[in-house]
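Give me structure tokens for this 187-residue protein.
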Amino acid sequence: MTFQQLKTLIRSDLYRYTGKVSTRLLLMNLLRNPGFQYSFYLRISHYARNNRNWPLYVIAKMWMEHYSCKYGIFVSTTNIGSGFYIGHFSGIFVGGEIGKNCNVSQGVTIGHSNRGKNKGLPTLGDNVYVGPGAKIVGNVKIGNNVAIGANCVVTKDIPDNAVVVGIPGKVISYNGSTGYINNTDYL
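Here you go.
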């Protein structure tokens, strides 16, 4: 990852929160917005690790760990697309691969299954909304423009534009995440 790519990712994340990008908004959100604080240092630590900038990596990782403990957010993902948005903090555990413009709410688990036919981590497409308390477990593919309702448990692949609710998750319509994913016109 280049420094320019890092800047683009941070700017896209900020735009998802505010609808604008400026130095003032960056500083305000770094001081007052838990979701942005965490994602900012997540991006910095990922960049520093990939570019073997160990002093920057240690500092960014310390801040990320601080916010992880303070806000209850843990992301172990190797690849998160642009425009990552954490709506509310607390009880968030994210693993797997996430596309661009993903909204994650409080109490969400996107996690690993260590046995069975879905052993592995989930893959989320672009413009996915994950509602409060939702759980996505195992090697499942979530399509683009999907809305996953509150407290839904997803253990099977979900097609594009689906709205999924319930335990286990069932598709109830194909209206997708329209209206849930905002401020995506940053590029």
